[in-house]
Amino acid sequence: SYELTQPPSVSVSPGQTARITCFGDELPKQYAYWYQQKPGQAPVMVIYKDIKRPSGIPERFSGSSSGTTVTLTISGAQAEDEADYFCQAADSSDSWVFGGGTKLTVL
Amino acid sequence: DVQLVESGGGLVKPGGSLRLSCSVSGFTFSRVSMSWVRQAPGKGLEWVGRIKNKTEGGTTLYALPVMGRFTISRDDSDNRLYLQMNSLRTDDTAVYYCTAGGGGGSYWGQGALVTVSS
Question: What is the chain A residue with the closest CA to B35?
Answer without folding.
Answer: A96
